[in-house]
Amino acid sequence: MLNPMLIEDAVRAALKEDLGRAGDITSQAIIPESAMATAMIASRQMGVIAGIEFARAAFRMIDPTLKFEVLVGDGGHVSASTEVARISGPARGLLSAERVALNYLGRLSGIASLTAKFAAAIAHTKAKIADTRKTTPGLRAFEKYAVRCGGGMNHRFGLDDAVLIKDNHIAVAGGVSAALRAAKANVGHLVKIEIEVDTPVQLREVITEGADVVLLDNMSLTQLREAVKLVNGKMLCEASGNVTLATVKDIAETGVDIISSGALTHSAPILDLGLDIRMTK
After folding, report:
1. Which of 53, 131, 143, 196 is catalytic?
2. Of these residues, 217, 226, 253, 272, which one is catalytic?
3. Does 276 participate in catalysis according to the annotation?
4. CB atoms within 10 A of CB 215
5. Which fold would CATH assign to domain 119-266?
6. In which residue ranges of the chain is CATH 3.20.20.70 found?
7. What is the DSSP letter of 98?
8. CATH number of the domain at 4-111+269-280, please?
9. Residue ranges matching CATH 3.90.1170.20 in the chain
10. What is the pTM of this model?
11. 195 forms bridges with which residues in the sheet?
């Protein structure tokens, strides 16, 4: 679940950006204040819904009298023409909130939909698909929430979540062993430690020193299979690099536990959703 206050703050900022200094001058100019309408948000393609509470918040903030009915909740699978939500009330408010509601709903549903494709491709294995920190600035918590809606799992949310020792850290620290020893000496007992390797020599050093997770970076399928055998359950194995829908199945079948991909968030197309309105008396 997302903290409702985060949703409130994000939607309020988006509405302020859209309404500007004078509000929706188009609706104010041509739509009578007394006009009432009903609108349906519907999907125009197959996918997975995420972000329905952002849409609800947008309509509520514009006009608290608008009624918002959820027909498909977050995590729900839809096909083309599936009705996702019904909104009814003053027409001006409906139109003024439309774009912000659809922007959030389309973006987050797109991430959930892409994640679901990755998750389905590896469902026959023990591997889980995970996101990264390659997120839109300011939207990380929401985009990672969408990954969960699509059946994926979250990697760390920020630099303060866990220790992830990458190649540049290793270079500065003076090697794999030095980096791991320093990490264990300086973080609390509840903090997980992960380290990135790209050679069998580095991997053997990690196994000797010990870590919670080893990140197998840009390794071939043969190297991944050999690494999994070498680790032999002593720690979690995460594969990263060159992860696409075309490659993820083969990567999962090497026996790794986790597959991380920045594409889940940085390359997901929106899910096409539209709002159709009809006037009521």
Report:
1. 196
2. 217
3. no
4. 25
5. TIM Barrel (3.20.20)
6. 119-266
7. H
8. 3.90.1170.20
9. 4-111+269-280
10. 0.95
11. 165, 214
Q: Could you tell me the two tokens for 192?
A: 């997980």
Quick: pLDDT tens for 125-172. 999 999 999 999 999 999 999 999 999 999 999 999 999 999 999 999
Active site residue 166: yes
Clarify whether 217 is annotated catalytic.
yes
Angle (CA) 18 3 156, round 5°:
100
Task: Identify whether 67 is a catalytic site residue.
Answer: no
* Residue 62 neighbours by CB under 8 Å, 6+ apart: 15, 93, 96, 97
51 dihedral zone (left: phi>0; alpha: psi -120 to 50; beta):
left
Which tokens in the block code for residue 250? 């083969």
The answer to whether residues 55 and 28 touch, using CB atoms and an 8 Å cutoff, is no
Supply φ then ψ for residue 134, to 5 degrees: -85, 70
Looking at residue 234, its pLDDT comes to 97
Using CA atoms, how far apart are residues 48 and 72, in angstroms rounded to an integer? Answer: 10
For 235-255, the pLDDT digits (tens) are 999 999 989 999 999 999 999
From 12, 86, 99, 184, the catalytic residue = 99
